[in-house]
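Q: Second attempt. The first request was missing the SMILES, so the protein and nicotinamide-adenine-dinucleotide are both included now.
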Amino acid sequence: MNILLLGYGKMGKEIEKVAISRGHQIAHKIDLNNVEDLHTINPTEIDVAIEFSGPEAAVANLLFCLNNNIPVVSGSTGWLDRKSEIDSICLQKKGAFFYASNYSLGVNVFFHVNRVLAKVMSRYPTYNVAIEETHHTEKKDAPSGTALTLAKDVIDHIKTKTSWVNASAHELSQLSIVSKREPQVPGTHLVKYDSQVDSIEIKHIAHSREGFALGAVVAAEWLPRKVGVFGMEDMMEF
Ligand SMILES: NC(=O)c1ccc[n+]([C@@H]2O[C@H](COP(=O)([O-])OP(=O)(O)OC[C@H]3O[C@@H](n4cnc5c(N)ncnc54)[C@H](O)[C@@H]3O)[C@@H](O)[C@H]2O)c1
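A: Got both inputs this time. The predicted holo structure:
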């Protein structure tokens, strides 16, 4: 495939490596230094665009793709207050738009397993559930966005849990999310169900950013020739 890269920062560079290793060509790379080149592109030569240009640039880049009939895979965060507008434009123009706030295939499998496990465990109230996440010391936010998605899905199923706290919970109605920050550790998420007789744990460990890039390229391979607005659940067919 001929890929248009919109955003050539940390993610754009990782996506380029993965795309080339899977036999694709990068037709154009657009970043802050050459934004004007976007208007010299022949859209008919592009099979799909992958957009990781960040919160300020995302909407304009997505509109460019939809107005030029280019299927687009987007991973930028921080612009989602305008997602319903972009979804409508895509549907109006019979275009193809794919969005995920987390492209890691493994994390999305983990989210699915977490939902299935929570549904099963909702029948066994003798187990108490808790979440733990460990990241490198440079990570500023806590809990991680991934831990928050896990927590939301647990709370949706386990009726004894009505809210989360970013600490060890003192009340049964609170779901503990314990955040640990340690030097040079891989990002790790653990969901643990504990009873007096045993424990059940599911764990995801991220080895690098490459997981996000791989998921975005796999989505770009999946999207062309489809019409509509899509996300990871559509592609991974849970
Ligand atoms: N969905 C996911 O799985 C996932 C994973 C990692 C990062 N992200 C998100 O992806 C975005 C990019 O992350 P990053 O780490 O690569 O950031 P980065 O700052 O390293 O790169 C951003 C790039 O966008 C370029 N850019 C800025 N304005 C532009 C414009 N108008 N047109 C085209 N390019 C423009 C910059 O020059 C830079 O090359 C962020 O919003 C980040 O949160 C999402």
